[in-house]
Write the structure tokens for this entry.
Amino acid sequence: MDQVQPSSELERQRFAAVGRALADPKRLCVLECLARGEQSVGDLSAQVGCQVPNMSQHLAVLRSAGLVTSRREGTTIYYRLADPRVLEAYQLIQTFAR
């Protein structure tokens, strides 16, 4: 069995932030939507079923944890997964939870 590499307190805080970002059903739904590709806040809001201001809050949490990135085109902000491994982590969570 592989040994867990020791980490600093700062790193553990960062790991916990990622865990908190993944600990919300709506944010997991956002990840599922973004697995299909880049999408606007409005599109994500409609698909996930929450108001745009709430979606913006969820996206801010995911962005702060480094799970998604964004770009602006005019007045529209588009989001995408920051790294394909985000989906791998989500799939691992699904495996444990099933």
About this structure: The radius of gyration is 14 Å. Residues 60 and 87 are 18 Å apart (CA to CA). The chain has one domain: 26-97.
